[in-house]
Amino acid sequence: MKPAAERHVNAVVIRTPAGPAPAAPAGPGPGALIRTGEPVLLAYGASGRDPGPLVGGGRYRTAMDDDRTPAVRLEPWSEGDAELLHALNAPELMTHLGGPESEEALARRHRRYVDLTADGTRAGRMFRIVLLPTGAVEATGAAEAAAGAIGFWDHEWAGEQVYETGWAVLPAFQGRGVATAAARAVAELARAEGLHRHLHAFPSVDHPASNAVCRAAGFELMGPQDFEYPPGHPIRSNDWRLDLGKP
User: How far is Cα 193 from Cα 165, in angstroms, rounded to an integer?
Assistant: First the structure.
């Protein structure tokens, strides 16, 4: 979906031609400032308020409630993210998904993530979640950190072509709003594709943290559903839906 000004959306980078910068979105909800002629990184705080000022190095972040509220950047999944995927395969992170995957299955998953991100057909994309230093933490010179993974992909649901999303955050970064910030950002990227009306998430009914992320990110609870994931492993999930607007 490209407006007349030829605003080009490529992964998490938005470029605009020279000229007046568009205004920041009004009212509550996530958004991104656009500075003409330079890349802009989508980064949303868990507060979901309008973006704040430019911070060093051409990076933008959202307004923060306080220094504990995170800002994240989504970076396209690449060959170098295999190590992150291994870390996300930890038993405590796979409890609701049938347990850790084998090395062979993990290698296939990594290849699917890389191929999906490079596909270019709007079938979806996967991202590395990067936690950005903010506030007092930023002043200490703390480095950015890979905190997890998130993405969206084509899925047929109830007779409709939709996007599905899912995420995982490393234990060291949980409980800090990272997943909520990433979910808001990935919803904006899915919306920018202009392909499907709805984005769904299917967390286990026994996973209160992921269900809380859906609620905080603006998804609507549609009700419980029964699945097998992986095949042979029954799981009861909640169907959460976000309206992306008319394609």
Answer: 14
Q: Using an 8 Å Cβ cutoff, are 224 and 240 in contact?
A: no
Residue 182, C-beta contacts closer than 8 angstroms, at least 6 positions apart: 44, 72, 74, 127, 129, 148, 150, 167, 169
Q: What percentage of the chain carries pLDDT values higher than 70?
A: 68
Distance between CA 52 and CA 71 in Å, rounded? Answer: 11
Nearest to 144 by CA among 61, 237, 53: 61
Please answer whether residues 133 and 143 qualify as being in contact, where contact means their C-beta atoms are separated by less than 8 angstroms: yes
Q: What is the pLDDT of residue 200?
A: 97
Residues near 115 by beta carbon (within 8 Å), at least 6 away in sequence: none
DSSP lists the bridge partners of residue 51 as 62
Distance of CA 94 to the CA centre of its chain: 19
H helix or E strand, kind and range, residue 224: strand 220-228
Give the mean model confidence (pLDDT) for residues 74-87: 96
**C-alpha–C-alpha distance, residues 199 and 102, integer Å:** 29
Average pLDDT (37-50) is 33
How many Å from the N-terminal Cα to the C-terminal Cα in the chain?
8
Q: How far apart are CA 228 and CA 140, in angstroms?
A: 46
Sign of CA dihedral 165, 171, 175, 181: negative
Of 71, 81, 7, the residue nearest 42 (C-alpha): 71
pLDDT beyond 50 at 194:
yes
Please report the pLDDT score of residue 233 as a whole number. 82
pLDDT for the residue numbered 69: 57
In the block, which residue shows the tokens 């097998």?
Answer: 228
